[in-house]
């Protein structure tokens, strides 16, 4: 830092204002006006990303400097700290700007699935599957409009949502009338959703009240037949309900001779469905870590943290999610909409 006392005080005030804004936004989410929440929450979550990468930068550069000092003559220039800080901030802000671009431009991931069962009236079925929209402060109505447009452009027969439609609080969704945008989603066979952990974190009663304003068919440990051609099974979230029904029990509500599609938020046991004859299962939750290097942690926690895997005759897909939580950035991962072409 410059020797100037004024510069040090100014830097400290800005630093701690950013550091604490996320905390104040979360504490005041039921009280503060929406515009003030955004003014606190967006810089605060962005700062979480800044802190992560600055910490990594200083660990790496200090480590290199220490190794040089131990093995060679002292090589650190007098202005090392100033260069370290300036270059660190420039690199981190550039990296997070790239991550924001990645987040703002979701991919459309297409996957053709062949199922060895009759599709009834639908031998060919186009499904758009999404998860983890996290509607709220970061994913506001304007961004939701872009998502709705992108989904409708795929001309799906059916839309599936694998939980975490809501972020931390239902209030921003109500104030911005986001149900109007959700109801613009177009799919002749309807919209189906299972609960995620954030529906419970937001207050399950409030989440349910909001979802009732939409045309989403919410499945909580339920199975439903679609035009007597195939079945959609929606599981309750494992963190919201530790005593949710097993896949084996839920299949008893279906006709297993027809195609069975399972919606579950968290991919903790991806093998249970394969043992019970599910044809396609779709998960979210992991974000695949969302920003590097957290994707390595997600890969270690889950058997499948992202992508496609076939287990016996069960096709399994874990999405990295369309929205996100925390820093509005995707680094090493990608926001996505998944399009299944079932044959």
Q: Which descriptors would you attach to this protein?
A:
globular, alpha/beta, Purple Acid Phosphatase, chain A, domain 2, 6-stranded mixed β-sheet
Under the CATH scheme, which class of the largest domain? Answer: Alpha Beta
Which class of secondary structure composition applies to the elements?
Answer: alpha/beta
Number of helices: 11
Largest sheet: spatial strand order: 1-12-2-3-4-5
Low-pLDDT residue intervals, each spanning 5 or more residues: none
Brief overview:
By secondary structure, this protein is an alpha/beta fold. The chain has helices at residues 5-27, 34-71, 80-104, 141-153, 171-175, 178-182, 197-201, 204-211, 247-251, 271-274, 294-301; strands at residues 107-113, 125-130, 158-162, 191-194, 216-218, 222-226, 230-234, 259-263, 280-283, 307-311, 314-318, 336-342.
Give an overview of the whole structure:
The chain folds into 2 domains: 5-103, no CATH class; 106-342, 4-Layer Sandwich (Purple Acid Phosphatase, chain A, domain 2), CATH 3.60.21.10. The strands form 2 sheets. A 6-stranded mixed beta sheet has the order 1-12-2-3-4-5, with no helix packed on it. It is an alpha/beta fold. The protein starts with a helix and ends with a strand. The relative contact order is 0.15. The mean pLDDT is 92. Helices cover 41% and strands 18% of the residues. Helix 1 (5-27) crosses helix 2 and helix 2 (34-71) packs across helix 3.
